[in-house]
Amino acid sequence: MSTQSRATDRTDGAVTGAVRFIMQAEGLAIGAVAVLIYFRAGYSWREFALLFLVPDLSMLGYLSGPRVGALAYNIAHSYVGPALLAGLVLATADAPAMPVALIWVAHIGVDRMLGFGLKYRTGFGYTHLGRLGRASLERA
User: Fold this and answer.
1) How many Cα atoms within 13 Å fall on the side-chain side of residue 42?
2) Which residues span the domain enclosing 44?
3) Which of 46, 52, 99, 100 is the most exposed place for a label (fewest CB within 10 A)?
4) Total domain count, the chain
5) Residues 16 and 130 sit within 8 Å (Cβ to Cβ)
6) Tens place of pLDDT for every residue, the chain, 140 residues?
């Protein structure tokens, strides 16, 4: 096996080392800023607690298999959705939706900080930030 293919097999497209650390620190920063903005705006902490884990309902997509599961999870855990929602709020002055966008961003930031990256269709444990759970034990 060539050195190139061993490196690819080892990481499976996941970032490692300093790049992984920077991406996790980025998640921490984004999540913390979203929580700070939420706090400074005076939004409801009860609403925050009730909605914080809602994006994880996307994991139900895995009941239809890893391909559908990864797609559902990645849609719910990409910054694109909350950014579009926040933009819509700013464009339409629909202020009640802004807390939802901030909670969504905070959720994604915390997930990234903890190493829960976007999923590959090979299985839930295969992410752009590295392997999780049993998948991490499969490393060669």
Assistant:
1) 1
2) 3-137
3) 46
4) 1
5) yes
6) 444 444 444 446 788 899 999 999 999 999 999 999 999 999 999 999 999 999 999 999 999 999 999 999 999 999 999 999 999 999 998 889 999 999 999 999 999 999 999 999 998 888 999 888 665 556 54
